[in-house]
Amino acid sequence: MPPAWHDGTVTGAHEPRPADDPHRFDDRYYRRFYGDGGAHDAVRIGHLATAVHHMALWWGMRIRTVLDVGAGMGMWRDWYRTNHPNVGVLSIDVSEYACATWGHELLDIAEWKPHTSFDLVVCHSVLQYIDDERAVRAIDHLGAATGELLYLEAPTAHDLTEVVDPTGTDMEVYHRTGDWYRAHLERHFRQVGAGLWIPHGGVPMYELEASR
Ligand SMILES: C[S@@+](CC[C@H](N)C(=O)[O-])C[C@H]1O[C@@H](n2cnc3c(N)ncnc32)[C@H](O)[C@@H]1O
């Protein structure tokens, strides 16, 4: 029998809650997954953000605006503020707690479609919290938001059973295949690799630089 969280239902001492109940993203949640042994920290995000920003420069992209979707503790936003203070960063999150604590706009990426695009969009470990129907809309909104480059991380069903450390990762999420994500992402993007996606019609890639 699959575990209770297999379909995204969170069970606990009280009523079952869906994985995308915004109230679950509270003080306890961030301490649990971003404390010692948690998913990642500001130092590791610094390595990742440095790499993403510099790959964008290598490809000739100008990163003047960034949208950080599901910003959580705001590590990407803070990295940009410190290292590239002239870059305008909009950080959004569906959690009232995260918005009040770390200063994001309270917006749900499944419901909010930006009217303007951002040079870089970051969606780091967010889509797995959103049910299928809403995740398709969220991906469409990422497509509308991305001017030059998307950095995306979302663990697939395979990752959740074979790759991640279940002690430091939130397993109470929607488990979907990589094929499911690719089918929806490829309507808007070409996959480059290492979590990077470029919009169709964006910067041309060498044949062996991006995946098909
Ligand atoms: C695992 S945390 C990742 C935080 C941050 N991106 C990072 O990697 O450090 C997931 C975050 O996504 C937010 N989130 C979940 N569903 C969302 C939605 N539909 N729209 C915007 N944010 C969402 C949660 O509130 C939470 O802060």
Oligomer: single chain
CATH topology: Rossmann fold
Instruction: Kindly report the spatial arrangement of strands forming the biggest sheet.
Output: 5-4-3-6-7-9-8
Label the CATH architecture. Answer: 3-Layer(aba) Sandwich
- The fourth-level CATH homologous superfamily is Vaccinia Virus protein VP39
In percent, how helical is the residue content?
A: 25-40%
Largest sheet: 7 strands, mixed
Global Rg: 17 Å
Report the bound ligands by name, code or SMILES.
S-adenosylmethionine
- Unreliable stretches, pLDDT < 50, 5 or more residues? 1-16
Compute the separation of the termini in Å: 37 Å
* Structural class by helix and strand composition: alpha/beta
Tally of alpha and pi helices: 7
Query: H/E element string?
Result: EEHHEHEHEEHEHHEE
How many runs of DSSP E, i.e. beta strands?
9
The domain tally reads 1
**Roughly what fraction of the amino acids lie in strands?**
15-25%
**The CATH C-level class name:** Alpha Beta
Mean of pLDDT = 90
Instruction: Please tell me what the overall shape is.
Output: globular
Which helices and strands appear, and what pairs or packs with what?
Blueprint: E1 9-10, E2 17-18, H1 27-34, H2 42-58, E3 65-69, H3 75-83, E4 88-93, H4 96-102, E5 105-106, E6 118-124, H5 132-145, E7 146-153, H6 157-162, H7 178-185, E8 189-193, E9 196-199
Parallel strand pairs: 3-4, 3-6, 4-5, 6-7
Antiparallel strand pairs: 1-2, 7-9, 8-9
Helix pairs in contact: 2-3
Bound molecules: S-adenosylmethionine.
